[in-house]
UniProtKB/TrEMBL annotation:
B30.2/SPRY domain mapped to chain residues: 89-291
Source species taxonomy: Eukaryota, Fungi, Fungi incertae sedis, Mucoromycota, Glomeromycotina
Record-annotated membrane-spanning stretches: none
InterPro entries according to UniProt: B30.2/SPRY (IPR001870), FBXO45-Fsn/SPSB_families (IPR050672), SPRY_dom (IPR003877)
PANTHER family recorded: SPRY DOMAIN CONTAINING SOCS BOX PROTEIN (PTHR12245), SPRY DOMAIN-CONTAINING SOCS BOX PROTEIN 3 (PTHR12245:SF5)
CDD domains reported for this sequence: SPRY
The name this protein goes by in its record: B30.2/SPRY domain-containing protein
Pfam families: SPRY
Organism whose genome encodes this protein: Rhizophagus irregularis
Length: 291
């Protein structure tokens, strides 16, 4: 799972240690480390591009400060979960700064990345995987793992690759790229269920959904429980999942509504249920001031 917060911790430790040595040392390591914004773009962009120029003589200059940097950072870097730092940062930045991380640990990380190739997950403030995964046979990805569309007038649904678990508030956005007659945004679980992806998610005990008709539904074919407002094409529906309280609520274009579902299980996946020509994009929820 990729996390900008994990990189931020690494970034802080390195610059703190460099500053303890000299201004010259700080200036050098600052030039070696990309900003949080660059790393965040790597974590959240499907097309992985490295747009950061590191010093051509990084290893030569690093060797001057290496013994002191290792002494100052070795115990602190144990707190950094390197598995959650983007592989391009590992290969382009951390590996050239040899000695800060043991070769054995770097080797283990490379092996894990090889096993997870193509399945990197972005996590920011405990946001779950934002890549669509398992779905009904009438659902298909559209140009990226973040956009799904339907090619059938029958309902089908899709969930993300990795579930939400743990504690705290988790939020993500679903953008209505193209509306259909029944567009449903929600969550699901699969633990203990034999799920049917070629159906309407709200009809099952493992699905909790909010529809474009302004109703919510769980484990019922009768979708008359009014909630919030109707939504339309290009609207943004935010899902607010409180894993501590085990509740879920929704916002439409940043207008918040009360709790829609309670007593949720401990493992939840983001999900949408659509029919043709519906198209849904999942993306991180970005909070603005006073929201």
């Amino acid at each position: 799972m990729l996390s900008t917060l994990e990189y931020n911790l690494f970034h802080y430790i390195i610059l703190w240690a460099a500053n303890e040595i000299s201004e010259e040392t700080l200036s050098f390591y600052r030039s070696c480390l990309p900003s949080s914004e660059i790393v965040n773009n790597l974590n959240t962009t499907y097309l992985q591009k490295w747009n950061f120029n590191i010093p051509f003589n990084i290893q030569e200059i690093h060797s001057r400060y290496k013994p002191t940097m290792i002494t100052k950072t070795s115990s602190l870097l144990d707190y950094v979960n390197l598995d959650r730092i983007h592989p391009l940062v590992i290969s382009n930045i951390i590996e050239p700064l040899s000695g800060l991380i043991s070769p054995n640990k770097l080797s283990d990380i490379r092996k894990k990345y090889a096993l997870l190739a193509g399945k990197y997950i972005y996590i920011s403030r405990e946001v779950p995987s934002l890549q669509w995964s398992t779905c009904g046979y009438n659902m298909c990805l559209y140009r990226s793992p973040f956009i799904v569309t339907s090619n059938s007038l029958s309902q089908g649904w899709i969930r993300t690759a990795v579930p939400v678990s743990g504690q705290g508030l988790i939020e993500w956005d679903i953008v209505v790229e193209k509306m259909c007659c029944q567009f449903w945004v929600g969550i699901c679980t699969i633990k203990g269920f034999n799920v049917d992806y070629n159906s309407w998610l709200g009809n099952h005990a493992y699905g909790w959904v909010f529809g474009s008709n302004g109703v919510i539904c769980h484990n019922s074919s009768n979708s008359t429980n009014k909630y919030g407002q109707k939504f339309k094409e290009k609207d943004i529906i935010t899902v607010h999942l409180d894993m501590e309280e085990r509740t879920c609520s929704f916002s439409v274009n940043r207008i918040s509504y009360p709790v829609a579902f309670r007593d949720l299980p401990d493992e939840i996946y983001p999900a949408v249920s659509l029919c043709a020509p519906g198209k849904a994009k999942i993306e991180p929820h970005v909070k603005y001031q006073n929201y």
